[in-house]
Amino acid sequence: MIREYSNVQKIEGPLIFLKGIKEAKYGEIIEITLSDKEKRKGKIIKIERDIIVAQVFEGTSGMSTENLSIRFTGSPFEIKVSKNVLGRIFNGGGKPIDGGGEIYVGKNLNINGRPINPVSRKYPKDYIQTGVSSIDILTTLIRGQKLPIFSGNGMPHKELAAQIVAQAKLSNQTDVKFAVVFAAIGVTKDDAAYFRNHFEESGTIDNVVMFANYADDPVVERFSAPRCALTVAEYLAFEEDMHILVVMTDLTSYCEALREISSAREEVPSRKGYPGYLYSDLASLYERAGMLKNKIGSITFLPILTMPNDDISHPIPDLTGYITEGQIVLSRDLTNNNINPPVNILPSLSRLMKDGIGEGYTRKDHPDVANQLFSSYSKVTDIRALAQIIGEDDLSETDQLYMEFGRQFEQKFLKQSNIENRTIDESLNLSWEMLRILPKIELDRLNDEIINEYY
Amino acid sequence: MDKKQGVITFINGPVVKGENMNAFTMREMVLVGENQLIGEVISLENGVSTVQVYEETEGLSLGKSIVSTGKPLSVKLGPGLLGNIFDGIQRPLEKIRKMDPNFIPEGVGLISLDFSKKWTVRISANIGDELAPGEIFGYVQETHLIEHRLMVPWGMEGKVESKVEDGQYDLEKTLLTLSGDEGQKFELKMYTEWPIRKPRIINERMKISKPLITGQRVLDIFFPIAKGGTAAIPGGFGTGKTMTQHQLAKWSDADIIVYIGCGERGNEMTDVLEEFPKLIDPKSNRPLMERTILIANTSNMPVAAREASIYTGITLAEYYRDMGYHVAIMADSTSRWAEALREISGRLEEMPAEEGYPAYLPSRLAEFYERAGYVKNLNGSEGSVTIIGAVSPAGGDFSEPVTENTKRFVNAFLALDKKLAYARHYPSINWLNSYSGYVKILEDWYKENVSEHVIELRNEMIQLLHEEDKLSDIVQLVGEDVLPDSQRLVLEIAKIIKVGFLQQNAFHKEDTFVPIMKQYLMLSLIKHLYDQASLGIKKGIPISQIKNAELFDKVVKVKYTVPNDDLKLINDISSEIDEYYENIFSKYEQVEA
Fold first, then answer.
1. Distance CA B30, CA B67 (A)
2. Per residue in A65-116, pLDDT tens?
3. Which residue from A135, B273, B294, B299 lies 20 to 30 Å from B205 (Cα-Cα)?
């Protein structure tokens, strides 16, 4: 049923308040026509007696309480998807902005999706080789995993993400269809262009779907951009049997938008002014990654967020870490020392790697080697603190070897150029080259059999 | 029954308000809107009632009806719970999967146990018996591991008037009829209902006296959990909360495990679902899944059901306790539950207390943890509910409200440590700021069942670790070389305790579960090494001689090299230690002479 109303009571920030409405659905999309016939889209986010609150995706500027005509569509936010979306660029609201015309044929899907039934999930086990040693060996990416990159302003997360996209190779790559869904949320046009150029150079552009919400685009579209992207990803993965890598940057802008709207709605804030439902809201995005028992495709999710003030305990990285299956943390120190990619391995973690590495997957020494590298490198940080005080020359012989191990590990293992693509075997061999700096007795995470074979 | 109806006037996420609801009662279950979404009345004021809805409210319309069901939000208790996986309000996820193979649809309706399945029932009550609530009148072999004991529901009492023959029946079949004192008739079926927010009735609480043996060294010896006790496992993300909870669910010696995945990752539940049926219970050689009930309300499922999932879980646990079983609940994570409270409270526009949490957070936490206990049931049997709650403090900071308040109500506090986790020391339970109030209470049990000396040994070793902590501050400043040999030995021994005893490998066949006797002998062996080495230091032998890398390494590797069922090997190593030091001592004495 189509109804038209024009009784607008109040406009505040991105929200409009409508009065005197008898019928409306929660989450329903409304179409707003301005006096100059411009059409905008809004979504009902609260119903309170006869007052309805809607957020306007394109922003409220130019609207007045008198010049609007509002049509209730009766349906939720849907986008049309088909295989034709590959190679296309859309804005945050799902409208094409590459001049290629609308998507006419396809399925209408609600961008909110539905939660995956836990019993329908397939546990992810196949690793993805990214060619980056620190990730492949220590925080192995698994197909169907959600693994965020925690970065900070000015750190090279763009380069790392682009390198992963360019080099990602599935472990048992036999006739698989692979595509990238990329969403830019509140990023500068330059940053978005960087990715686009990169996709073009590496020849992946025809397999990329881009959703771009630039920093100066309406805030409300920051909500819909990731949801549109994930809806497309779900369609391609579960209807077209493709393996999808979803890259999103920057989730921090998304959370800022959430906070902005929340405060416009006069909601009770929790930590740092973010709404109490930030966790659930982020989960509704991140949990859309995964694999299904009766489907071939998969969604691997690589969100990027910049930690405000490099603070990992800030609500955004904190809540993200509680939902995602690990995290790759970049370090300011390493960046300043020109070690790229500056992966700080100690707080980095991949929760799913335990079942996807080792014999039959990567190589049998992989789990123990990873364990040993973590353990030895964490000792290096302690010894460095000591060396700061007593000087490196006064360290014990073993401690000096640790210092050397630390240096080589950072310079040879972590550091790698943007186009250097190392196989898992190469990275593992490199790990052994590092571990051989230390005496055998210090390798307490490795058993004799492995030491004898590889040391 | 005349259906009471209200009209929807307000929708904000999972919170819905309706008018014209004077006749509704608090905590009543209602059906909301066209899709008949399940909700619960959480406040009533002047005919306006607030309902929290357990399903997605998108698409819900203004002006649609809210229908009363006349009863509080309840679970159905009967055979079919074990080995099953439910959502937060006891709807089986496998059944939901039959409606939609991949995603969770809206308007699933109220489903719970399988009413079509027939169970083999054996009735133990005889005609003419006087039965009171809680008494057992029959048995169903629910799984190979667990016998389901059918109990007279609360509120029914009287003389057995008729009963069915032993045989196969479905849940709805009337198995027994009772006639009460005043001539009332009661029909007893295989299942009963119980409101989730109300603790089940018991005879009396008993003293806690037995440990929950988990096979995890840092717990069983250092920070034990008691049967009927409460424990919290707080830790930032990546510190291994879930891993620890999984280990407890797999190996603890409870009869039944209720695992509540509350607002956590979907893949973690999948992991449990794939792994548990493959794991074999060492005692009975049956899959562990046969003693496990899973409740999964993952982070992307509706938030109100997350709030309810904790109560659903504990009610199921209490039900099995009433039969005389020892039940352990793992709630992962109670912080997500607290956040669900906060989210709903925010939508209700309640006045927030600390960090936006509602002021009633502490009382809700207390209500939950107080449902644990070692009890004498109405039927005279003994049973227990042990609660182990994971806490996910924001930013890993233990001073936040959920951790702080939980600390007030639990007796064992197992603090997970980021630094240990970064060094991949698992389980990353910090021995300096964890505690267990059960050490004292369980002392007698340990003395009787393990050894006279175990508590003494434990205290001594913990003290040594504390000493090491202080010393390592000094080492950080000036290096190890300046310490006297006796203190350097403390550092060495502490390292053995950490690597050889406290670290436990969940993926190693022998190490994932260790019997308590081996745990004790391992620690004794370390202590023996320490004693012998100290003796040498006292004799003036330098640490370079005392510390034999090979020997020390052997002690560290006991966890892998000594099989759990052949502990004699520990004695051999002990003799080796004696031999080595006697050798050194005599050499040294010769030189001296």
1. 5
2. 888 888 988 889 999 999 999 999 999 999 999 888 888 899 999 999 999 9
3. B294
Q: Answer yes or no: is pLDDT of A5 > 80.
A: no
Phi and psi, residue B41, nearest 5°: -75, 125
Mean residue pLDDT of chain A comes to: 91
Together in a domain, A53 and A83: no
Q: CA A65 to CA B257: how far, in whole Å?
A: 59
Task: Please give the Cα distance from A159 to A191 (Å, whole number).
Answer: 10
Select from A49, A72, A95 the last residue of a domain: A72
In this prediction, residue A3 carries a pLDDT of 59
CATH fold label, B114-192: OB fold (Dihydrolipoamide Acetyltransferase, E2P) (2.40.50)
What are the chain A neighbours of B396 within 8 Å (beta carbons)?
313, 318
In CATH terms, the fold of domain B204-438 is Rossmann fold (3.40.50)
Q: Which residues of B106-128 are buried (b: 16+ CB within 10 A; e: fewer)?
A: bbbeebbbbeeeebebebebeee
Q: Is A359 touching B (CB cutoff 8 A)?
A: no
**Interface contact flag, A386 B476, Cβ < 8 Å:** yes
Same domain, A16 and A93: no
Quickly state the pLDDT bin for B1 (edges 50, 70, 90): very low
Read off the pLDDT of residues A170-221 as tens digits, 9 standing for 90 and up.
Answer: 766 556 788 999 999 999 999 999 998 988 888 778 889 999 999 999 888 9
Burial B81-96 (b: 16+ CB within 10 A, else e): bbbbbbbbbbbbbebb
Residues A370 and A349 placed together within one structural domain of the fold: no
Do residue A354 and residue B480 have CB atoms under 8 angstroms apart? no
Q: How confident is the model at residue B479 (pLDDT cuts 50, 70, 90)?
A: confident
Q: Which uninterrupted H or E stretch holds A81? A: strand A78-81
Question: Are A322 and A184 contained in the same domain?
Answer: yes
B279-306 tens-digit pLDDT: 887 777 889 899 999 999 999 998 889 9
Query: Which of A290, A349, A374 shows the shortest C-beta gap to B266?
Result: A290
- B240/chain A closest Cα distance in angstroms: 10
Supply the range of the domain harboring residue A45: 4-72
Please judge whether A374 and B423 are an interchain contact, meaning their C-beta atoms are less than 8 angstroms apart.
yes
Supply the pLDDT for residue A412.
Answer: 95
A361 belongs to a structural domain = no
- From the list A409, A404, A333, the residue with the least C-alpha distance to A370 is A409
> Is some CB atom of chain B closer than 8 A to the CB atom of A26?
yes
In a domain, A109, yes or no: yes
* B4-55 residue pLDDT tens: 899 999 999 899 999 998 889 998 999 999 999 999 999 898 889 999 999 8
Residue A27, min C-alpha distance to chain B (Å): 5
Could you give the ipTM of this predicted complex?
A: 0.87
Domain B454-592 coded CATH 1.10.1140.10: yes
Average confidence score pLDDT of chain B: 92
Q: Kindly state whether A22 is in contact with chain B, defined as any CB-CB distance less than 8 angstroms.
A: yes
Residues A447 and A320 in one domain: no
Contact: A123, B271; criterion CB under 8 Å? yes
Residue B2 has pLDDT above 70, yes or no: no
Chain B residue numbers touching A279 (CB-CB < 8 A):
263, 299, 336, 339
Question: Could you give the number of structural domains in chain A?
Answer: 3
Stretch 227-286 of chain A: residues touching chain B, C-beta under 8 Å:
238, 267-271, 275-277, 279-280, 283-284, 286
State the smallest CA–CA distance between residue B132 and chain A in angstroms.
40
Question: Tell me, what DSSP letter sits at residue A67?
Answer: S
Asked whether residue A337 falls in the same domain as residue A380, the answer is no
The highest-confidence range among A7-11, A231-235, B241-245, by mean pLDDT, is A231-235
What is the CATH class of B5-72?
mainly beta
Residue A360 falls inside a structural domain: no
Find, among B472, B492, B493, the residue nearest to A383 by Cα. B472
Test mutation, A22, A26, A261, A349, chain B, max B CBs within 10 A: A26
Q: Any idea what the CATH number is for the domain that residue A241 is in?
A: 3.40.50.12240
In terms of phi and psi (left: phi > 0; alpha: psi -120 to 50; beta: otherwise), the region of B486 is: alpha
Taking a C-beta distance cutoff of 8 angstroms, is the pair B50, B19 a contact? no
Residue ending a domain, among A23, A53, A72, is A72
Residues A36 and A177 in one domain: no
